[in-house]
Design a protein that fits this description.
Layout: E1 12-16, H1 29-41, E2 46-48, H2 61-75, H3 89-102, E3 107-109, H4 119-130, E4 136-140, H5 142-145, H6 151-159, E5 165-168, H7 175-182, E6 187-190, H8 196-201, E7 206-209, H9 216-227, H10 231-245, H11 253-263, H12 280-295
Helix pairs in contact: 1-2, 2-3, 3-4, 6-7, 9-10, 10-12, 11-12
Keywords: Lyase
Organism: Streptomyces lutosisoli
InterPro entries: Aldolase_TIM, DapA-like
């Protein structure tokens, strides 16, 4: 499948969906379907299930597949870009094939993360998964994976046809300009909520987002204003939301976003081990920032 200007389903605001769990820690598929639909109804362009925020690492294969199928049934496959990360390239390719067969129009892929892969391993990994025939968006998260998809490497992956875009989570906004020089055709996607404005100004074409799980309308307004150059609107919203957005780059991002969801009346629910609940001070900080956003009319 070849991506065209008209067919770039990773553009816009795609929410890395948190996965609602029941008290017994089983997946609440009904709540998840409702959540996906609610996000689109509130202005988001699509969802990214089975990312880190979706706790994919602690799902069974059956759960992981059903999460994708549930999202597609709720909002249509063109708006669903599942994470297909796995320790082995063959397994990641199988997840890409599962997403393709479920009707998804693109997938998101981390580099090899079982060990600190070198450049040849990274190229081979993306080449193998691209054989599934569904456009691949790379996910650069050197903090967690210890493998850094630097602009030069991303340009090689793009030139070889293995990827079409990158979710950039390094936090280094300077890379946006170098990547645009090395690979003008690649789409840069904002990967961390707390550098949204900086990367939007630098030419980002989308946002794989965390906090719209709780505050979709205000988050979408912020993104649209930022990419359209309305810096007065974007700057004000960014300052109001940044006390929450910065949690997306913290270790406890899943717990924080789920707590905010609960506060605004959505179903975040608990997390699966080895994640544990927030410490009292962390919970108080998230609660205060969320309630302040609600009071400001941002929920």
């Amino acid at each position: 499948m070849t991506a065209t200007t008209e067919n770039r389903p990773w553009r816009g605001v795609l929410v890395a969906t948190a996965l609602p769990l029941k008290d017994d820690l089983s997946v609440n598929y009904d709540k998840f379907a409702e959540h996906c639909a609610w996000l689109v109804e509130n202005g988001c362009d699509g969802v990214v299930p089975n990312g880190s925020l979706g706790e994919y690492q602690v799902l069974t294969p059956e759960e992981r597949a059903k999460v994708v199928e549930t999202a597609v049934a709720a909002i249509g496959g063109a708006r669903v870009m599942p994470g297909v990360a796995a320790y082995g390239s063959a397994e990641a390719r199988r997840w890409a094939e599962q997403a393709r067969d479920a009707g998804c129009a693109s997938v998101m892929l981390l580099p090899p993360n079982a060990y600190r892969a070198d450049e040849r391993s990274v190229l081979a990994h993306y080449e193998e998964v691209a054989k599934a025939g569904v456009p691949v968006v790379a996910y650069n998260n050197p903090i967690d994976t210890k493998v850094d998809l630097v602009p030069e490497l991303l340009a090689k992956l793009y030139e070889e046809g293995h990827i079409h875009a990158v979710k950039e989570f390094s936090g280094d906004v300077r890379r946006a300009y170098q990547l645009a020089e090395l690979a003008p055709g690649i789409d840069l996607l904002i990967g961390a909520d707390d550098v949204l404005l900086e990367l939007a100004v630098a030419g980002a074409k989308g946002w794989v987002a965390g906090y719209p799980n709780a505050l979709p309308r205000a988050s979408v307004e912020l993104y649209r204003a930022a990419v359209n150059g309305d810096l007065d609107t974007a700057g004000k919203l960014y300052r109001q939301l940044h006390p929450l957005l910065r949690w997306d780059s913290k270790v406890e991002f899943v717990q924080a976003i789920k707590l905010s969801m609960d506060i605004v009346g959505r179903h975040g629910g608990p997390v699966r081990p080895p994640r544990v609940p927030l410490l009292p001070g962390q919970e108080a900080a998230v609660r205060e920032a969320t309630e302040r956003a609600v009071a400001a009319g941002l929920a």
